[in-house]
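FYI - complex with iron/sulfur cluster, inputs then prediction.
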Amino acid sequence: MPRRKTESTAAELVPEQLSLPSLKDAAADCRACDLWKKGTQTVFGDGRSRAKVMFIGEQPGNEEDLTGKPFVGPAGRLFDNALEEAGIDRKQTYVTNVVKHFKWEPRGKRRIHKKPNAQEIAACRPWLEAEIALVKPKVIVALGATAAQALLGPQFRVTKERGKFLESTLAPYVMATVHPSSILRAPDDETRHLEHRRFVDDLKKLARALK
Ligand code: SF4
């Protein structure tokens, strides 16, 4: 019987001496899954090293891939505005993604987001676990279904459980809400406005819990 090939992950690349700069440097050369071939660069997490809250999205987008920074594209700008409305200073937070390279497919001249698969998420998980171990946030907020299911299990439904504080081994509390990019994809202005308000309401709950 042929031996099953061990799945490759980034685990052996994580440095023994953990610090955010050493992690970022090590992740820059990561080849633990094939996504490094698609993306321009590794987009590592960014923010305060002892942040009380860590936001985790799915993966970097087109602008993030080009700049090397998370949450700086259109969804990142919406995120910044929503944080401000909720009274949360982004400089006091840490933002990252479950997958650190941009997965995309061509559509004409554009690069269109493609959802990472379970193997890519598993390969990248050691980076996320190391970030959580270092930052030790009080609350982790999963943004969107991919991040929420990676953290809370494949049965988790953001539509049913959004905005609730859930106990977790990852941090004292985990909350899930939508990814800001889903608000940008709303079919009309009225829905977009409504979804934005609901997102800000989730963040306001978080702001109260952080006080
Ligand atoms: S997506 Fe993650 S595991 Fe895959 S190459 Fe990039 S950093 Fe490594």
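Confidence is low (pLDDT under 50) at residues 1-6. The first helix runs from residue 20 to 28.
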